Structure formats: C-alpha cells, structure tokens
Amino acid sequence: MQRVLVIDDEKLILDMIKSELEKSNFSVTVTDSSKDAIKLIESMDFEVILLDLMMPNITGLELLQMIKEKKSDVPVIMITAHGSIETAVKAMKLGAYDYLTKPFSMEELTMVVSNAIKFKLTSEELKYYKREFKCNYGIQMIIGKSKAITEVKSLIKKVAEADVKVILIEGESGTGKELVARAIHAESERCKRPFVAINCASLPENLLESELFGHEKGAFTDAKTAKKGLIEFADGGTLFLDEIGDMPLNLQAKILRFLEDRSVRKLGGLTDLNVDVQVIAATNKNLKKLVAEGKFREDLFYRIQVVPILVPPLRERREDILDIAKFFVGMFNNEFKKSIKGFTPIAEKLMLQYDWPGNVRELRNAVERAMIFEDSDMITVERLPVEIITISCRQTMPAAKCLELKIPQNGLDIEEVEKELIKQALAISKGNQSKAARLLNIGVDAMRYRMKKFGLLN
Asked: How confident is the model at residue 437, as a pLDDT?
C-alpha cells in the first residue's frame, strides 16, 4: 500500500484528504504540526507528501527545503490558496513536484497523487538501471593497471563528464572497443537513456540506412509499416557505430549531415526530427589509409576525430594479462560453479610470453575453454591452447632456448618443472608418446618412465 503524508493546519482539510485517499487504497498519515511532520519524515518512508504552504511557526517553503534535504527523492505536492500562485511557482523551483490550488476536486487530488507516485517509481527504476549499467559496464570493468590502459580510463572519465558529442575509438579486433564505449555511456548522465549499438559491417547498405534512420510505410517494397530508426531510439543516450570504416560511402554522407545538424529524416519521410545523441564510432582499420584510398570520406574522418581514444593491444600491456585472466577465472567460476584459484607458474609464464593476436577476446576464450576442462584447483599448461604452449618454440630457435626459463629468487621445484614439460609435450603431440618423446629429445621408455613417475599414465 502506498504511503502518503498530509501536512496542513486545517483539520477539515486533513480529514477530507485522508478520507478520499483511503478510498483509493492509499495509507494516509496526517498532521497539523510542522515539528511533528519533520519527526514523521525522519522515522517513516512516504511515497508522496502533501504540504500546505501556509503553515504556522515553520512556513511551507521552509518545510519543503527541510524535506528535500532529508528525503530528496520523495515528491512533494504543495497545497495553496488561490491568491498564492507566485509562491507555488517558487515552491516548484525549490523542488516541489506539483501544486493544488484550493478549492480542488477529489478527482484532481487523486490524479495528482497517483501521478506523483508513478513519477517516483519511474525515478527509482531509472536509478536502478543506472546502477546496474554501471555495475556491468562501468569503468571498473576495464581491467588493468598498465600506463596504457590507465590513460584510456582517464580519457573515459573526461569525455563522460564533458558529454563529448562525437568520439572515435580505435584499436585492433578484440581489444574491447565496445566495452570502452559502454563505459563512457555508463559514467555519464546519458546512462539514464538508451545505449544503442549497431555493427556497420554486418548489414547491407539499404538495410543499414533503414536501421539507422528508420522508414515510413511504403518507403520501399517491404516497408509495410513505419519504423523508428536506431538514431531516434537512442535520443538522449548513446549511439555506438561499430566498424564505421566499413560503412558505405553514400551512407557516410548522411551520417556526416546528421552529425552536423543533429536531425534525422526517415526513408520516405518529409520532415526532419531533432535528436540529442552522443555518437561513438569504433574501427579496427586505419581510417587515414582508407581516406587516401577513397574508401572513407575525409570530411567525416575529421568530424569523428574530435576525441580519438586508442585502445592498446594486449601485447603492449602485458602487465595486465594475468589480472584480466584472473578476472575471467572469477567470472567463469560463478558461471560453471567451480572454485579454480588461478594458473600454475609455468602456465602464467607462457601466457605472458604469448602475443595474443586476438587480444582480450582471445584471452577470454582461452580461459573459458581451460575452465571447462580443468578438474584441479589450478589451470595447468595442458589446458591452454596449443598455440600458446608452442609460441616460444619457433622453428629457427634451438630447442634448448624454447622456454627461456629463469629461476626465481625464491627458487623452484625442478620436479614440478619436469612434470610441466612432460605435460606440454603430451599436449602438443595430442597424447602421442613417441612424438612427445621426440619433442623432449628423450627415448620413448624414458618418456613412459616420467609419465608413470608423475602419474600421467592412464
């Protein structure tokens, strides 16, 4: 039941409002004392407060300010006499939701209170979604302490606070460009509104234009009904144009026009619609090279280059690799109901040596696969993809230099190293003992002896 507090020094008004609102299933508390009202507000939660402007001792405006300091999210409806409209307007500027002028009808009273409750519920939902979006996509989801990624995080905060209207995110495939875009949206005031993403490389030109700008009924053969475009859907929020380097030239011109005048016209439409949208473009291509080749408009290139953000590849921030990998371990522990603690020392070393051409996306996939098949509490070398295991052993390298292992200051267990090497060889050879033995330059009998020694024989 929705709780309503009514504050008025006229007992007749209090009784009338209480009786009427209770008929509509509201729980109503009334008081004719400002001091009692303050105590009630401090001790109870109310969905709506009705407050008379003309209160003794403490004025309605003073009481309104106190309420807003204590319970800023509670809508306050002012009750005012006919000749106090100017004061009511002042109350609205101080944060009142609405006002009722005496005499008012019971229908008007019920409607205003109901609307105020809907407003409060909507505000609470927006706050909830804002918290959820920040939790799932905020800047804390960009893992790493390297100088390169710290600079990216700093840029995210700056452009989010400044509400920069056009941003370009550059970086190789899999570096997390969309994650950066979502973090910008989550850290800004636009997080209350939609984040709309579209991949410019995934749709043919005619469909991409229709998706972005929408269309009127009959605009083309299959346009049986009118459709709102994604730019319009993103009004007040963020439009993410992924792989903008693959956008057709004809559509690039229309996007440029939109960025210049901030209005859209549906396909087959006759009128323009103004929209307030932050546009974040992303690409894994060299746009300057595309401009030189005539595949990307030069004017659009300079328009979206207002604030460029370069997301570094994983090989340029190797100090972040293990932090990101451990983050994924925690994530997949929850998903797979496991309790894996991390990686063995040699597995960590190989992960740090690998260049990760697929970047964070490849790292995530590698951890996920390892988590699925790992039965112990640590991810071992044999659970890593073969390309990671073999990356240090290039054809031109002598076998003795393949791993380039160094003894740590606190020493290591040579038996454990030998066991890991046996596991690596078996993983590379896919269980073929003869091939594994050749990789380690030992005989098959010696290989089988070590497998038995370390409990690796079935």
From this structure: 86
